[in-house]
């Protein structure tokens, strides 16, 4: 394995303290790199596409499964729970853990991994405020991206109101994983003089048909579906239910609009290898900052 490619792999997966052990280990001739990934379950097209992009880009850099790389992927919605699957993930002692999703993904990985370095895509939680890292500039054994959707939730309410100024009753569909988003969206809606119908789903797998019957019985004129890893596998059904009621709807991420949702607004973020390519040179240990995504987009379909 060439020196350039060793460096690229370290840069690719986040750099800094989290990736530093890979540099030394990969210098061993023929060293097999073991990567553990805890993220969205691969039971829906967006998650599958992201994972395939991740593997393809690793291959383009010379890291191929079955040759010099193994990837053990586990889904967050495994019925045994994330802590059980995280324990299984670290049992073979991987060189690096990648977590993508809500706080439970990092909780499980940190609880099970000990000193194994972790690269995160933190969705809807602040790892600094929650005590997982000592500081943004020196995150220690954890580095990666921080993806807060609270501001996006406020903006989604605003965009719906601008598009449909005659609508005054908004349903908010959320669960425990998206409760913080609800906490941002509800006051934003009330500040715009909207009546809010809060529909919290409990105990997955959720009954989305019943949820939308609740939307209809509550007289909602618009619906905002907040972001949860438990919603994504059912995006086609959720979009179908919203469209069947001819409700102006707002979702997070372009895949919802591509599935037929009326509007989608969110940051452009995936778990592909390119997520970490902005690291142009190999940084020193303990000096890599956590980073937010920098681009958001809106997509819409004809109602």
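^ structure tokens above, recovered residues below v
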């Amino acid at each position: 394995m060439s020196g350039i490619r060793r460096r690229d792999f370290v840069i690719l997966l986040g750099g800094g303290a989290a990736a530093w052990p890979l540099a030394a280990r990969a210098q061993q001739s023929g060293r097999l790199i073991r990567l553990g990934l805890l993220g969205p379950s691969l039971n829906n097209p967006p998650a599958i596409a992201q994972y395939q992009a991740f593997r393809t880009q690793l291959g383009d850099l010379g890291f191929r499964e079955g040759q010099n790389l193994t990837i053990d992927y586990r889904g967050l919605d495994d019925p045994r729970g994330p802590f059980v699957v995280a324990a299984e993930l670290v049992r073979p002692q991987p060189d690096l853990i990648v977590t993508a999703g809500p706080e439970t993904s990092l909780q499980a990985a940190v609880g099970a991994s000990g000193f194994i370095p972790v690269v995160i895509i933190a969705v809807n939680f602040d790892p600094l405020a929650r005590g997982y890292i000592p500081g943004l500039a020196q995150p220690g054994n954890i580095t990666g991206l921080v993806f807060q959707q609270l501001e996006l939730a406020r903006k989604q309410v605003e965009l719906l109101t601008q598009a449909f100024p005659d609508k005054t009753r908004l349903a908010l569909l959320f669960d425990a994983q998206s409760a913080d988003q609800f906490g941002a969206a509800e006051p934003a809606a009330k500040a715009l003089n909207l009546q809010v119908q809060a529909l919290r789903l409990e105990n997955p797998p959720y009954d989305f048909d019943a949820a939308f019957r609740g939307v209809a019985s509550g007289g909602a004129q618009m619906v905002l579906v907040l972001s949860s890893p438990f919603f994504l596998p059912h995006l086609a059904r959720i979009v179908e239910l919203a469209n069947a009621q001819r409700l102006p709807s707002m979702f997070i991420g372009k895949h919802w609009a591509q599935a037929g949702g009326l509007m989608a607004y969110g940051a452009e973020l995936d778990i592909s290898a390119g997520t970490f390519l902005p690291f142009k040179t190999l940084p020193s240990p303990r000096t890599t900052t956590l980073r937010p995504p920098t681009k958001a987009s809106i997509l819409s379909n004809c109602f």
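The chain is about 35% helix and 20% strand.
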